[in-house]
Specification:
about 140 residues; two-stranded antiparallel sheet; 7 strands; about 35% helix
């Protein structure tokens, strides 16, 4: 199946494995919350047990260093694509309001980005992540 949109998650490659998983989970949540139409139907197994729905389209995960993350952010904003973001400061907070305060305290150019997620038209995402490689 071909989708008109793409979901891309860009994660800083030098993070610890638990941090990468944490960042990816939070960023995917931001996409699901902002674009409820990308969430599929609930699952049900053969025994009739029901499970929560998932995002119903592939999520492409890229690795990047700090400059590449900043470049992807600027490319997204220049194309009016509003990304979800995760900064290194957010690892030291314990709740959503503190996360928002940590981001608000830093000018965009000084954000210590560890992850971004965005959903937009396929070609638009391709331009934003141009030069990045899939995370390995």
């Amino acid at each position: 199946m071909q989708f008109d949109t793409k979901i891309a998650v860009v994660i800083r490659a030098d993070l610890e494995p638990w941090q990468k998983l944490n960042v990816a989970a939070f960023l995917a949540g931001g996409i699901a919350a902002t674009f409820p139409e990308c969430v599929g139907e609930p699952y049900e197994d053969g025994s009739g047990t029901t499970y929560l729905p998932l995002i119903g389209q592939p999520i492409l995960i890229y690795g990047a260093d700090r400059p590449a993350l900043s470049r992807a952010l600027e490319r997204a904003l220049a194309r009016d694509v509003r990304p979800a973001l995760y900064t290194e400061d957010m690892f030291r907070t314990t709740h959503d309001a503190a996360n928002r305060a940590a981001v608000r305290a830093v000018a965009r150019a000084d954000l210590n980005l560890v992850g971004l997620a965005m959903r937009a038209g396929r070609k638009m995402i391709d331009k934003i992540v141009d030069g990045l490689r899939f995370h390995s």
